[in-house]
Every structure is written in structure tokens, then in C-alpha cells.
Design goal:
Blueprint lengths: L1 H23 L12 H27 L3 H14 L2 H11 L7 H4 L2 H8 L4 H7 L4 H7 L2 H10 L20 H17 L7 E3 L7 E7 L2 E6 L4 E5 L5 E5 L6 E7 L2 E6 L4 E5 L5 E5 L6 E7 L2 E6 L3 E6 L5 E6 L5 E6 L4 E5 L4 E5 L4 E6 L6 E6 L3 E6 L4 E5 L5 E5 L6 E7 L2 E6 L4 E5 L4 E6 L9 E7 L2 E6 L3 E6 L5 E7 L5 E8 L3 E8 L7 E6 L2 H4 L1
Antiparallel strand pairs: 1-32, 2-3, 3-4, 4-5, 6-7, 7-8, 8-9, 10-11, 11-12, 12-13, 14-15, 15-16, 16-17, 18-19, 19-20, 20-21, 22-23, 23-24, 24-25, 26-27, 27-28, 28-29, 30-31, 31-32
Length: 525
Amino acid sequence: MSAVVQHSNQTNTIRDDDESRNGTFPEDPDEDDELTLEDELETDEAMTDDVETDNSSSAVSLGGWTHTDRLIAINELIYSCEPLQVRHMMEVIEPQFQRDFISLLPKELSLYVLSFLEPKDLLRAAQTCQYWRVLADDNLLWREKCREAGIGHRKAMSDRVHGRLSTGQWKNTFLHHHKVEMNWRQRPIRPSKVLKGHDDHVITCLQFSGNRVVSGSDDNTLKVWSIITGKVIKTLLGHTGGVWSSQMQGNLVISGSTDRTLRVWNAETGRCLHTLYGHTSTVRCMCLYEKKVVSGSRDATLRIWDVESGECLHVLVGHIAAVRCVQYNGKLVVSGAYDYVVRVWDPEREHCLHQLQGHANRVYSLQFDGTHIISGSLDTTIRVWDVETGTCKHILTGHQSLTSGMELRGSMLVSGNADSTVKIWDITTGQCLLTLSGPHKHSSAVTCLQLIRKFVITSSDDGSVKLWDLKTGAFVRNLVQLSGSAGVVWRIRASETKLVCAVGSRNGSEETKLLVLDFDAESQS
């Protein structure tokens, strides 16, 4: 502290001498004019030497100070400075405490730290500096972000090399999916393609795969459409009654009709490959698995067919009323009927393993994941069954009418009901997680639903197709709203980027047609 006091005293003495000198010896106003450039340089050099000498002497004097003395001196210095001088000190001091720890870490650790960032924060980090850009664009880092978001790469497996894609591909994939999601969620909906061809008849079934749509109608025909051109590729002629069920796999189309037959078609050529005879009433439902199809009929039986040979392999007898819905996973057949019963079959032995009894009315819909069976009934309930034991694990109550359609994703079940609501359930606990209702809910029966990405898409007798957030249950927006009060959306089918709607009316006031909506990012650009 003595050095600080001494320095202060010296400063005061110099100030007093200057004042005395100014008072006794007035400066000559012309004296500065005689200074040359060389004089100014010499003065500047002298001042620099003085500063260096002062710094050197200060460093020497500070060397013997205690930590406490230094803190007191710094405090006194700060308190005696003007704001501009304090700001200068901050500018000098702050960089001493700033470290780019990401650049100092090994690359593996840096990537590990960045892996905890959300994708939007990664994009911001990439703008920090060139090295951060290299790290934030790492292909494996974005592959993990795609995995977390449930996104698979759009290209074929042949594009992968040892599980890795070329530089930037995973990031591009993520950004593409994000753009598509925004197209679904908020960007203006492009004008839909309108596909007309069934006149004023009802479109009873709808399949969608790749760039093809297959529609079946009560006009006895099926039509194969190109969603690229919006034109009919082939009209499948041969049934003598209305088509009420269909399945599609690649170029193969299977249809069931009120004429009591199934037909196997080549969608590319339009040729009927096989006509499958055996049922004695309308073929109301079917499920295709690889090269076998299981059909359910109003004759109360189920039949398993080989679609390549057209041969009937097995007949399952046991229901005492029309079979309305069926599921097949290659090993077990599950069927629901108007006799209020769900049955589990071993098709190879043509043996009924379980009769799942409990519903008090007709069973209209089924889901089966190999472990759980979920059945929806006209009795307003949904039941969750254990396929191994045949026991009812949960009864899901809350709907007020017929459950017309369901979709299962993991432990999450989404159900659409004639009471105009959609509910989301946890089948492991039996709890209703969300009800998609509110001021934007459908005003009439829900006819169909689809799960894609983060959304639930629902259609209704009220002529609308609505988009809902799967996680929150919030209404997002209307995708389709038919004009007039008589419009009906019978069926919908969706892919990651496209939506196909079969629309018409109950009284003929709305023209029967297919609407194709495109949400692809590339199409929007």
C-alpha cells in the first residue's frame, strides 16, 4: 500500500508544480508552432519509454504485494475511474476468461456435447465459426437426430455404405422431413388433383401404394390411378356385384365382392389372374400377408387362399354370424363378427384357439400386433386382449357409439367413432390419453383415420378431413372441407407426403371423386 500512497503523493506534487508554473510562467502561444514533425516523434517515443518504464516499475512493485493488497488496489483503481475507462478494463479483462471449449476438446467429445442440442440449435451452432460448422454438420450426428425423430433415409439401402451415407445426407434427410412436416402443418395447401371415374356410385374401398391408387366401388369395378397424372391407368372389370373389400401389394390387387368371389388382379396390365370361388355370401373383409390372403364373409366363414395359385388352402368355421373384420400376421388369424365374438385361429390346423367373449354387440374393427388384440364394437367399448391367454386385459370406455376404425402404433391406440370424436389410448394401462374434440371437432361420424408422422388424419360424414397433433391432441387445421352440407368423405389413405380422399354424398349432390393432396417438400419448392 505504501507504493500506492507514494505514487499518489508524487502525482499531487506534479499537479501542484504544473499549476504553479502555469501561474508564474504563462505559455507563449507561438511556441508550439515551432515544433517540427521530428520533435513530435521524439516526444511520442519519450512518452512510450516512460509508459514502459512505469509498467516495468509497477510490475516490480506489484510482485511483492499480498493478494489482499492487490484486491484493495484494484478496487480503488476502479472506483477512481470514469465509466469509459471501466469499460476499457472490461474489454481487456473479459477475453481472458473466454474459452472455446468445443474447439479445445477432442472431436469425439465435442460431438458428444453437441449431440445434446436440439436440431434447431445445431443449425445455429453451425454459424459460429468454420470449425463449429464442420462439427455441427457431422453425418453421424445428424443420423442420430434422424433416429431420435423416427426418420429413415429416403434412398434405397444400396445407397448406404457400412451404415453411413455420404457427407451431409442425414442432415439433408432431416431438413427434408422438417419441410414436409411444415407443409402438412402450416404452409398453404396446393390445389388437389381431382380423379373422376366412378360416376355417382359409392367408393367402398381404397388402397394406396407408391404412385398408384386403387379404388373399389359398388359399380362392380376397381380403378387403378396414377397420382402423378391423375388419370386412370386401368379399369378392372369382372365382378358382377359391388366391390366391398380390397388389398394391394406391389402390382397385385385382391378384391372381394357381393358376387361372393375374390379376384386377383395385375394392376400393371389390368388382367384378372384368378377368380376365387368358395364363399356363399358377400366377401366383406380381407387381410393380405405375403402370398396368402384371408377373407371373411357374410356366410360366417373365413378362407385362406394362395394368391399365386388361386387355391383355397383352409376354411375356418366357427362364427355364427357375418364376419366383419379380420387380421393375419402369417401365423395367427384374428376375426371379429356380428355374433359379438372375436376368435383367434391357427389356420394351418383350422383350429380356433380362443373365443374372446365380452362384447355386447357386433364387432366392427380389429387391430393385432402379435401380442395384443384390440376389438371395437357397436356396444361403444374397445377391448384389449392377450393373444396367448385369451384374457381381456382392459375395457376402454368413453366413446358413445360404434368404433368404426382404429390404428395401433406401439402401445398407442387411436380410435375413431360414430360419436364424432377420436381418442388416443395407452393399451398397456387402459387409460385414455387424449380426446380429439373441442370447437374444431367433427360434427358427424368419423369414417376413417390414418396415422402419419406426428399427426392423426381423420375424415367424417360432415365432409371434412382434419389434421391433429398426435402428441398434444391439438387441432392443427382442415385439410379438406367439401362445400355444401351433404358432402361425405368415405375413405382416406395417406403416405408421408400425400393424402388420398374418396368423397361423394349420400343424396348425389356431391360428385363422386378422389382428391389427391401433395405435401412433398420438393413439390412445394
